[in-house]
Structures are given as structure tokens and as C-alpha cells.
């Protein structure tokens, strides 16, 4: 198999050297350094042949790990062994770096003696090796990790720098909700959920502490509670309006205050950031309702009517409304009529696309499509794929995608 294994740093200095066969001399270390690490041209191939000696090498961060052989070996097996060696180092002492290798060179030599025997791979499973090589590796901490630890110990706020000043203190909040709905042809809801994001833009001086109160209608559903607690939550849900299934917060939010006081308290980062994500599946009111009607006129003609109703308040305004109505594969031509917006048949998508720029609340729009079909010998009935819809309702911005069956 292989005759030796070497580990270099980015300067070409040898960190680990283990020779398993007599056909590999010490000058092989210098040959790889000169011809690969210090090469003027970029080395693209992971295998380099120098003086009838093959060097199989991998580069991880600023470390080179190289297997050397003078025999005709299985290249895939050699690279698998090198990757396993790197994985073993990671499992023992974390990140593989020059400093980590220097701190754990005794452990690495012990591992190499178990991994390879006379150049042949033996054991590369970390679970097996850890049963008899019980020495713990020395894990090194990076500058970022040290800064994070220092921030945690000293209470320093890493997400906001000190000395920020604005002439005018401003704070903007947007609630972005994505409504996903699937409904069958009979109007029964098959699945529905709302995923929302609270996005903020902060232009505040100093280190301000912001606090948002949450009304009693918001209840987080904790599945880990006992049966009695779940029953209490269910009772509250009947009287309450909004039940949040799960939510996640930005690291600046003080979670202890949210659990006890039901308020979101935080020192905001400067600029735009996402404060919160949430998801709910209970008591969803749908902004739009789609009522499709399909009428087959013989075997070569079909009529589809789609009624679109807006269910939100008249003060709100729906924008960028797009309804995609699928058509049969044998469609030859489509004649479209709509009382609002614009419609177009797209043969590439095999669908009618109906676009409405704006639509006020409690309004209604209608589209009629007369479809001419090509004669077909197949008696298969059209499966009527679901209608899909995308829109925005701007109060807090709401973006939606909801399919409904014909």
C-alpha cells in the first residue's frame, strides 16, 4: 500500500512524518515541498508523480496531508484513507489546524500506528479506536470562539457596537406572513398553515433596550407539557384568537422575560434584522376564495369559469395577484374573458395565467376561458390539477401561495 504519510503546514514545514516502508526515503519530504507546495504554477491534480514516486495529497484549510508510495496502488482507497484520517482527527480534537496538530502530535502518532500497519489500512472507525485510545485531544479555540466566550462572560453585546449615534431615532417593524393552503374540489381544506417573520429596521443611538408587549390572544403551544397543562391550553384557545405552534427569536431577545412576562425585550442590532419567526395552523382566515366551475361541451370543447373573492377588510388592498389555472394537455386554443386584470394562455406551462394589479377587500372578479381541444383517441379523463395563486396583501405585508383544486 502506501510507503509513508506526511502532514505539512502552508509554508511547507513538516508537522507529522511517518514512514512505513524502506522504499521511501527522507528526501521525499523535500520533493513534495518544492514541487507542490512551493510550485509557481497552481497544482490542480490531487496526485503528483515525482521521480517515480506518487504523492496523493489533500489540502484542508492551511494543512496538507500527503500519502507517498512507489507502487501501483488503488487511488480511491488511498484518498478514502486520507479522508478517514482527517475525520478521526476532527472527532478527537475538533478543528484540524496547525496549532491543533502541534498540540496533539503524540495522539496523532498513536492514531497513525493503529490506522496503518506496514502501509495497509487497518482501523479507521472512531468508535472502535476510542475504546483503546482513550486519550482526550486538546481542543484549540479560534479567535471568534474566544471573543464569543469573552462576550458571554463579560456580558458584552456582540451584535451591536458601542458609540452609534443618529440625529433622529427611528424604529420600523414589518410583519411578513406566508399563507399556504391546499383545498379540494369540494371546498374542504386539506392543509393550511401560516409562517410569519417579524423584520425590524433599527436606527437608534446608544444601547437602547426595546420592549414589545404581546396581547393575551397569542398562545404558544408547548407539546412537552403534561396532559393537564395541554388541556388548559386547549381551553384558552377556545377563548383566544391566535395560537402560535412554534416561534424562534433573534439572539438579542431575552427569553426569560418572554416566558415570564409575555413580552419581547431586546437591545436591537443596528440596521435591518429578523427579530422573530413563528408558525400557526389554527383558526386561519383565508384572504381569498377561489370558486372554479368546469363545463365540458362535447369532446373538443371545454369552458372554465373562475370566480375570485377577496375576504379581507375593504380598508386593505391586495396587490400582485397571480392565478394560474391549468388546462388539458390537448389544448389547441383558448379564448379568454375577464372583468378585471389581464389574462394570457401560456402553452409552455399548459396553463392560463390571470394577473390583477390591485384588488380591494370584499370584491369579486371573474374569468371565463373557452378551450378548444384536439381530438384524442384516449378515453382517459382529465385529472384537473389544482389552481395555484400568489398575492400580497399590504397592511403588514402578506405574501401567499395557495393551490385549490378545480
Structure description:
By secondary structure, the protein is α+β, with helices and mostly antiparallel strands. It is 21% helix and 42% strand. Strands 8, 9, 13, 15, 18, 20, 21, 23, 24 and 25 form a ten-stranded mixed beta sheet that branches. A five-stranded antiparallel beta sheet has the order 2-1-5-4-3. The two termini are 66 Å apart.
Structural class: alpha+beta
Q: Could you give a short account of the major beta sheet?
A: 10 strands, mixed
Query: Which residues sit in consecutive blocks of at least 5 with pLDDT less than 50?
Result: 222-240, 396-405
| Percentage of residues in helical conformation | 10-25%
Summarize the structure.
The protein has helices at residues 27-37, 75-93, 98-103, 105-115, 126-132, 143-154, 227-239, 255-261, and strands at residues 4-9, 14-19, 47-50, 53-60, 63-69, 116-117, 120-121, 170-183, 189-203, 210-213, 218-220, 242-244, 246-249, 263-266, 271-280, 288-296, 301-310, 317-326, 331-338, 342-346, 351-360, 364-373, 386-394, 397-401, 404-405.
Amino acid at each position: 500500500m502506501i510507503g509513508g504519510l506526511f502532514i505539512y503546514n502552508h509554508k511547507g514545514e513538516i508537522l507529522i512524518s511517518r514512514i512505513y516502508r524502506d522504499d521511501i526515503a527522507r528526501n521525499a519530504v523535500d520533493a513534495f515541498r518544492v514541487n507542490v507546495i512551493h510550485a509557481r504554477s497552481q497544482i490542480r491534480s490531487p496526485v503528483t508523480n515525482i521521480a517515480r514516486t506518487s504523492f496523493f495529497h489533500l489540502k484542508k484549510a492551511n494543512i496538507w496531508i500527503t500519502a507517498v508510495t512507489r507502487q501501483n496502488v488503488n487511488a480511491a482507497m488511498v484518498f478514502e484513507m486520507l479522508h478517514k484520517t482527517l475525520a478521526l482527527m476532527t472527532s478527537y480534537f475538533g478543528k484540524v489546524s496547525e496549532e491543533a496538530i502541534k498540540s496533539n502530535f503524540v495522539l496523532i502518532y498513536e492514531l497513525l500506528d493503529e490506522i496503518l500497519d506496514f502501509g495497509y489500512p487497518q482501523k479507521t472507525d472512531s468508535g472502535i479506536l476510542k475504546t483503546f485510545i482513550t486519550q482526550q485531544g486538546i481542543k484549540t479555540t479560534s479567535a471568534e470562539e474566544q471573543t464569543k466566550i469573552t462576550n458571554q462572560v463579560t456580558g458584552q453585546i456582540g451584535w451591536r457596537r458601542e458609540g452609534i449615534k443618529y440625529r433622529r431615532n427611528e424604529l420600523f417593524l414589518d410583519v411578513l406572513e406566508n399563507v399556504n393552503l391546499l383545498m379540494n374540489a369540494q371546498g374542504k381544506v386539506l392543509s393550511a398553515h401560516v409562517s410569519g417573520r417579524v423584520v425590524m429596521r433599527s436606527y437608534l443611538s446608544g444601547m437602547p433596550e426595546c420592549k414589545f408587549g404581546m396581547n393575551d390572544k397569542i398562545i404558544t403551544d408547548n407539546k412537552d407539557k403534561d396532559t393537564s397543562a395541554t388541556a388548559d391550553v386547549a381551553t384558552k384557545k377556545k377563548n383566544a384568537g391566535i395560537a402560535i405552534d412554534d416561534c424562534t427569536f433573534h439572539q438579542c431577545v431575552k427569553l426569560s422575560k418572554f416566558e415570564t412576562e409575555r413580552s419581547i425585550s431586546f437591545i436591537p442590532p443596528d440596521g435591518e434584522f429578523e427579530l422573530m419567526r413563528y408558525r400557526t395552523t389554527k383558526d386561519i382566515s383565508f384572504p381569498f376564495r377561489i370558486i372554479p366551475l368546469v363545463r365540458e361541451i362535447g369532446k373538443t370543447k371545454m369552458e372554465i369559469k373562475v370566480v375570485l373573492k377577496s375576504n379581507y377588510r375593504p380598508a386593505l388592498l391586495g396587490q400582485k395577484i397571480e392565478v394560474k389555472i391549468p388546462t388539458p394537455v390537448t389544448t389547441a386554443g383558448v379564448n379568454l374573458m375577464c372583468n378585471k386584470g389581464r389574462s394570457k394562455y401560456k402553452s409552455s406551462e399548459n396553463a392560463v395565467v390571470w394577473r390583477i394589479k390591485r384588488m380591494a377587500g370584499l370584491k369579486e372578479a371573474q374569468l371565463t376561458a373557452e378551450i378548444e381541444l384536439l381530438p384524442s383517441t384516449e378515453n382517459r379523463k382529465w385529472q384537473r390539477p389544482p389552481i395555484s395563486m400568489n398575492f400580497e396583501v399590504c397592511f403588514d405585508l402578506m405574501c401567499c401561495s395557495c393551490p385549490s383544486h378545480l
